[in-house]
Amino acid sequence: MKTKKKxxxxxxxxxxxxxxxxxxxxxxxxxxxxxxxKCSAGCPMATFMEHPPNRVVRLLQLGQWRRIIEGRSxxxxxxxxxxxxxxxxxxxxxxxxxxxxxLSWDADGPSKESYVQLANKLFLQNIRTYGRQYEMRLxxxxxxxxxxxxxxxxxxxxLLAKGKLKMxxxxxxxMTEIEKIFSRIEEMRKKGEAL
Amino acid sequence: xxxxxIMEYSYYPGCSLHASAGEYDLSTRExxxxxxxxxxxxxxWFCCGATPAHNVDELLSLSLCAKNLELADQIEGDxxxxxxxxxxxxxxxxxxxxxxxxxxxxxxxxxxxxxxLNSNVKHLLDxxxxxxxxxxxxxxxxxxxxxxxxxxxxxxxxxxxxDVPNLDCVEAPTIMERVxxxxxxxxxxxxxxxxxxxxxxxxxxxxxxxxxxxxxxxSAKAAGADCIMVGCPLCHGNLDIRQKEIEGxxxxxxxxPVFYLTQLVGLAAGLGPDQLGLDAMIVNPTPLLKEKGLx
Lengths: 195, 295
Prior knowledge:
The complex is a heterodimer. By secondary structure, chain A is mainly α. Chain A has helices at residues 16-26, 38-42, 53-61, 65-70, 82-86, 93-106, 114-130, 135-145, 155-161, 175-190. The mean pLDDT of chain A is 90. Helix content of chain B is 48%, strand content 10%. Chain B has 14 helices and 8 strands. Chain B has a 4-stranded parallel sheet with strand order 2-1-3-4. In chain B, strands 6-5-7-8 form a 4-stranded parallel sheet, sandwiched between helices. At the A-B interface, helix 5, helix 6, helix 7, helix 8 and helix 9 of A face helix 2, helix 3, helix 5, helix 8 and helix 9 of B.
């Protein structure tokens, strides 16, 4: 049986600097939360998470962010924003999730949830290369890279027959512009002008 | 000679409408043409970044949206958006960039242009219900959808973001019901109209989508709906494309055709199946529409 790691709340284990970064990125304060739990009650993905949304905020309040980053909760958030909508204290939880994912992503964090991260990565690569999203390519490359060659194989022929999978797409003629946006952002980050 | 358009918009279709949601694009163009609403596609628009971009890189997400708003600015009129996710991203970007000077300056540097926040971003529903108006919409319904019981499915992003005045009330919207009732359909009252379908987990974690979408289909069926109406290509993908698979997993039979709002309104406006892309739907709507005398 797996034993749960006991949480020790002390000055040594509380990392508040990281939490401040999350608050700055998300433009919201975790201290406003009084744990009513409305966010978790309305969250469609809470059943798939080891830490439901209200506990994510509680862990942040206690500076225990590592527990969040190591788990899969942030990657199982669907960004439906129901939590932010219903929060009586205007804690923008959807933005907190974005900030946590960004910090974990940038640091190549230890989360075991690799499929969602792989899908995100391929999605963004597609935008950089093509300017738009090419669904067929996205799905095909995802299957290859995740080693699930047979995933949704039965859907393929049907979608092709219905014209839902396009082999060729209308090309965006403005491709240099998109590459410039990506590289300018990289440049700004190198210079420390943006997070 | 066709009469001049009564309204003009710039049109942001979004990536899905050029691929898996081709019938949404087709029916939107045909319906708006029939209603006398002009749509000019924004030249060389980019992907809005959707969920993956804001998930891990807010600056990129804001910059992509700001770039699209800049491109839209070349064209006269408000921005018409078909996809609920694109709509929500563009609205959010406008809100954040208007409020946060630091982020706005960073984005201006990234796109190397001033941020343009003046264009009014509108979902197609907004245009039909408010700009055109329900009375004119009802008058355009040559073949009212009498006897068709529709479950209007909003999903999550259609009424987001929540911090700005938007399409409709976030917790109890009625705009879809009002639009489809204006063209003669009946609507059902059901529990899951605002629940998330799992959206883009369809690629990375389809098991999640199957579970969430099953609950939605189950609720619509239990409420006595003949079909579902959506305004988002991701919801459509999950409800329509995965429906057979879900029926297999849960050993049940839903057989609920999933229409885009423009397909149902277009049908009432007298457009033919070819103009609405009905043959692209995975759950075949023809038997239902024939039974109701609508085809």
